[in-house]
Amino acid sequence: MSQEKLGEKLGITFQQIQKYENGTNRMGASRLQQTASALGVSIAFFFEGVQGTNPVTGDDMGAELLKTLQKGDGMALAKAFTKISDPTIRRRIVQLVEALGA
């Protein structure tokens, strides 16, 4: 599918698609879900072959991320979190969740 066609399906310009593709702009969870739907794939498709190890736990970060996003509350949390623009509030939320999980 062309960038222009995908942009039309998402209601954005092909230039915005290019910015996502090049990593110039980040893609939030809701846009990722829309993109997956437009392409007819699951969100997991975008994480196939993701390599990386969490330096703290040693866990495979790709698998950990997929498990979290596959849960309804994980996706809801990711969507809500990406809507918070204040970096201080975002950091405090991460600290709160880390404390609750400990």
What does this structure look like?
The chain has 102 residues and is an all-alpha fold. The protein has a domain at 1-39. Helices cover 63% and strands 0% of the residues. The protein has six helices and no strands. Helix 1 crosses helix 2. The N and C termini lie far apart (44 Å). The mean pLDDT is 82.
| Helical residues, percent | 55-70%
By secondary-structure content and strand pairing, the structural class works out as mainly alpha
Poorly predicted regions: none
Cα-atom radius of gyration = 15 Å
**String of helices and strands:** HHHHHH
Largest sheet: none
What is the global morphology? globular
Q: How far apart, in Å, are the first and last alpha carbons?
A: 44 Å
Explain the layout of strands and helices.
Blueprint: H1 3-10, H2 14-22, H3 29-39, H4 61-70, H5 72-82, H6 87-101
Helix pairs in contact: 1-2
Features:
single chain; 102 residues; mainly alpha; globular
